[in-house]
Amino acid sequence: MSESQQDTRWQSQNPNPMAPRPSTFKAPDVLNYLCADCGAENGIKSGENIRCKECGHRVLYKPRTYRIVQFEAR
Amino acid sequence: MPPRSNDDPRRHVQILPERVGNVSGNDFPGHYPGEDHSWNLKRFKENLIVSLQRLTPSTLEFDLVGVDASIANALRRVLIAEVPTVAIEDVYVWNNTSIMQDEVLCHRLGLVPLKIDPREMIFRENPNAGALDTDTVVFQLRVKCDRQPGTQGETDPKRKYWDSDVYTGMLEWEPAGAQKTKWKRKEPKPVNPDILLCKLRPGQLIDLTCFARKGTGADHAKFSPVATASYRLLPHIIIRSPIPLEHQQKFVQSFPPGVIGIEKDKRGQPQCVVKNSRRDTVSREVLRHAEFEDKVQLTRIRDHFIFNIESVGQYRPEDLVPEAIKILLNKISAVEAGLDKLFDPEV
Ligand SMILES: [Zn+2]
Fold first, then answer.
1. Quick check: B163 and B146 in contact, CB under 8 A?
2. Which residues contact B323 (CB under 8 A, 6 or more apart)?
3. Fold type of domain B85-224
4. What digits encode the pLDDT tens for the residues A13-24?
5. ipTM of predicted assembly, 2 dp
6. Nearest CA distance, A2 vs chain B (angstrom)
């Protein structure tokens, strides 16, 4: 196996770009919740019905927010 | 003075069936009447032997002969705990939706050996001050798992998804300050790009920033440059009287292959001879058989140390020992300066 081939084997393969890191820590107006039944993403504003727009399921999961946390690598 | 012989019983640590004997050396002043055992640099130099036995890209085996166990042990301990390396110390997790908890993932990142020459970095002086380009190396890890299109019926996650496995090769160095020119063509990166850090499933992502810093194994094992450094004493086998022909095969088989050979003596009779005692594991198997009683003596040479060192990858194995000796010499200088102060009549 050539050197360059070996180098890229362990690198990221996903062609889809990742969303940039948020520059502010302000909470967004629309939060994307995940349906507990079908897994669809649901953009829900505050005051809106808590209900999946795809299947009507009433349990939604809140994904982890994009916020920095410091850890010691120990 | 004639060169010292391995057959000198004063140099032997006895390997007996139930115990080891003659463990401590007696070559200190006043022990043997009429013999001068005061420390003498010229004599030490004559007796000191350092010889390389085996060198591979990752391991080193060398002999150190003519020093006290305290010196050999100091060298071993400095190699393990005081030769510095660079490892990930702080991790800033932006997001991690994988199954692995942040603290577990960060602990794993800390253990990844990094190919950064520690001699080109300084220790971080003030933990409260900001990071400098001379004491910190930054890596970014940004991975997201997605479903690959057109893979219906596929069961292998590696073909079904993109980036379902997160490897150390995905850590990307972010040059800061003068680092880009300083480390041109020797970019900091993990020693092994193929260490699996975590697994992902579609929709999960890991996004974090790592700060790598210089440290020593005394602080945390992740900084240790060796895996590991150890020594053993050279085995020395003495055949006291000839082994009878009918027992020779059994005698040979009581040792690992290559230790004992059968050779014809002057009269053409086959005799057991010690071929290579270095290969002996000192299992003491030969001492279990009554027919070999008093015919063989197992010993080790007390001041012949066989060092085995495996580098983790930050240093070349041949660079590790000189680095350890430098650190040891600095310690000696520190003690020397302290003693000078202690006995200085001016103070
Ligand atoms: Zn749903």
1. yes
2. B83, B315
3. RNA Polymerase Alpha Subunit; Chain A, domain 2 (2.170.120)
4. 999 999 999 887
5. 0.86
6. 15
